[in-house]
Design goal:
The protein is mostly beta strands. It is built from two helices and nine strands. Strands 1, 2, 3, 4, 5, 6, 7, 8 and 9 form a nine-stranded antiparallel β-sheet that branches.
Length: 183
């Protein structure tokens, strides 16, 4: 499911960054994405499912090794995946210690198919590395060589921050999976 996670998380960050730069703390209401489809193919060795949605579009889903009941998924099963995220940005006061934390939980539901919820929350302290008012754009850097740059739609928000400002970014992601046997 990492492809779905990556695409959805990038979309959330891209859509949300401009509105939070000028705020001390800003919570972005979570987005919810639903992927529904029928299992068309299963690559057991690489743990990849290919789903076909109601419009005939094919979607590949990487299934984490932590999904213990992966072998119970069969071609023809109907799968619904709901993805939700919430992002909080906070301008960090000078002198406050940096953070880099991550927590996760999995709540399986009893049954023959892999059904349940998985959630993660990560908070990292980032630093504004560059601001380009001509584009306009902003670049953040964080732990483990993490770097993120993007256009900013609200030029006024760039005037409220400066290079060197520190920002805590906390994001929460949850994914709920429901698998129903083929009819």
């Amino acid at each position: 499911m990492s492809r779905v996670y990556s695409v959805l998380m990038a979309a959330v960050l891209l859509l949300s960054m401009a509105s939070v730069l000028g705020a001390q703390t800003k919570t972005l209401t979570g987005d919810s994405t639903v992927v529904k489809g029928t299992v068309e193919a299963i690559d057991v060795d690489n743990r990849v499912l290919t789903l076909k949605d109601s419009k005939g579009k094919f979607v590949t889903i990487d299934v984490p090794k932590s999904t213990e009941r992966f072998p119970q998924i069969k071609v023809g099963d109907a799968i619904t995946i709901r993805y939700y995220d919430n992002v909080v940005f906070r301008l960090k006061p000078a002198g406050e210690a940096a953070v880099d934390t991550s927590t996760a939980a999995i709540t399986p539901v009893e049954g023959a198919k892999p059904v349940g919820t998985a959630a993660t929350q990560r908070t990292i302290t980032t630093t504004i590395q560059a601001i380009d008012p001509k584009v306009p754009s902003i670049t953040f850097v964080g732990p483990n060589n993490w770097k993120y740059s993007r256009r900013v739609s609200d030029k006024k928000s760039l005037a409220k921050v400066k290079v060197g400002d520190r920002v805590d970014i906390t994001w929460t992601e949850a994914i709920m999976v429901d698998v129903k046997p083929a009819k």
